[in-house]
Amino acid sequence: MANLKYLSGFGSEFSSEDPRRPGALPEGQNSPQRCAYGLYAEQLSGSAFTASRTENRRSWLYRIRPSVIHKPFVRSKISEHLTHKWDDEEPNPNQSRWLPFDIPTQGSVDFASGLHTVCGAGDPRSRHGIAIHVYLCNTSMENSAFYNSDGDFLIVPQQGTLNITTEFGKMEIRPNEIAVIQQGMRFAVAVDGPTRGYILEVFDGHFKLPDLGPIGANGLANPRDFLTPVAYYEDKEVPDFKIINKYQGALFEAVQGHSPFDVVAWHGNYVPYKYDLSKFMVINSVSFDHCDPSIFTVLTCPSTKPGVAIADFVIFPPRWSVQENTFRPPYYHRNCMSEFMGLILGSYEAKEGGFLPGGASLHSMMTPHGPDAQCFVGASKEKLVPQKIAVGTQAFMFESSLSMAITKWGVETCKKLDGNYYQCWHNLPKLFSDKIDI
Ligand SMILES: O=C(O)Cc1cc(O)ccc1O
Ligand SMILES: [Fe+2]
């Protein structure tokens, strides 16, 4: 999908018309008695009608047919590994690390059928919780569209470009870019070959840009770098277009006789968007010590507790490391939050081996972790000259205030859990001595 156009801004009021039908957007009102070109008006609400102005999210779609024309939903069997069953496995506080998840090489698996849940917590019925999935696929979705009634998807491609058609238009997302597709938005994913990536799903609310506090008005992910598609419609009649719905953690499908990507024009502030992680303005210590990784937060889904996130999306981008008299890699720590990490490109400074692109790690609540022995020894002795670090790499973290369970697929079926992970810390030397200055 070359030469796609986008609208720039985060949380803005946008409007867009497919240029093939100028004047499709009503002027000065949302619901005219008859819409231009015989279109139907449909509102998609992403917040309670009565939410405050700052929280209110809705869009108006002007479409060939309203979404309601479909046969009844029935249970879908397309992915047996998408689940919110958090009690299938016994709780396990150990450090967990997965080798790269396998992309299917046999048979045709598309994005929707390639969804596998690794871990999560909470419940979409009470609108509180998260799920972390990976998608492992090799084929484009054909005559089918997906929407999620349970929450929002933050999609992190690791291998392969995603060509995403949405009701709002088309987006192309390559590794080192992310996409957010919010609750209810219909989309279909086309791929070029073997494709893998991670998804953070939040049930509670929508992603926001973090407050910048003393950083000031600019920095981290800047609002204008978020891109939303422009209106694009297809007038396509097919006997069996499949609408796949994730509802209360289960998949359903309904058949309809036309493509749902029939939105000729739309306006509003409830939209899908993408962001190129290389545009992140990195802020860090330029004197001494190691900043907490919250300094690298791209997007956050806040909880109702001040300063506590349901989940943050944090990256570890290429940057200059200049701190003096400092152990520069991550410190050893125990955290009241859960840390799920993935690797898009390259390697991660705290674990040069074993944590690989397309793999993952989970350090659960209060489970100790930190640099492996090799990293500690190297960083304790290195000459502290200014150094460009993480060049050609991109690791990320989904950090959550919820205590997550790993699914049966994550523990057993995927066969990627690295039982020897704990050993990476076992060669940490005992350096204690009676000399103050070692
Ligand atoms: O555990 C990790 O590797 C993530 C992380 C990085 C960092 O720089 C500080 C704290 C932290 O949890
Ligand atoms: Fe950590």
Automatic annotation (TrEMBL):
GO terms for MF: homogentisate 1,2-dioxygenase activity; metal ion binding
Domain called Homogentisate 1,2-dioxygenase N-terminal: residue spans: 5-277
Active site: 290
Cofactor (UniProt): Fe cation
InterPro entries found in the cross-reference section: HgmA_C (IPR046451), HgmA_N (IPR046452), Homogentis_dOase (IPR005708), RmlC-like_jellyroll (IPR014710), RmlC_Cupin_sf (IPR011051)
Top enzyme class: oxidoreductase
Chain positions recorded as Fe cation binding sites: 333, 339, 369
Transmembrane domains' residue ranges: none
Keyword Oxidoreductase in record: yes
GO annotation terms (biological process): L-phenylalanine catabolic process; L-tyrosine catabolic process
Enzyme Commission designation: 1.13.11.5
Chain residues that bind homogentisate: 348, 369
NCBIfam families, per the entry: hmgA
UniProt name for this protein: Homogentisate 1,2-dioxygenase
Native source species: Danaus chrysippus (African queen)
